[in-house]
Amino acid sequence: MGQDLNWKLSFDNLKKSYTTKHIYRLHPYKGKFIPQLAEYFLDDHINEFKKEKYFNKNDIILDSFCGSGTTLAQADELGMHAIGIDVSSFNSFIAN
Question: Measured between alpha carbons, how far is 39 from 48 in angstroms, rounded to an integer?
């Protein structure tokens, strides 16, 4: 079981202090994912799992379930524009 999964994307080798870097320590929102996961898919690296670059600087990223804004923050770090939507006013507050 799990032989077809890319276990490198678990990021289990990272310390909690690294996966909760800078803005991710503002609030202990339980539904957030680690910034490294968003960065993995947004940045321009290519490897055996991610075969092509999907996003470029100045692209517009839409996160329609933005939660606490992890994807929005990572997009901003990479020079992309980001729009986030969430049904929860609390999540929208955190993301803003």
Answer: 16
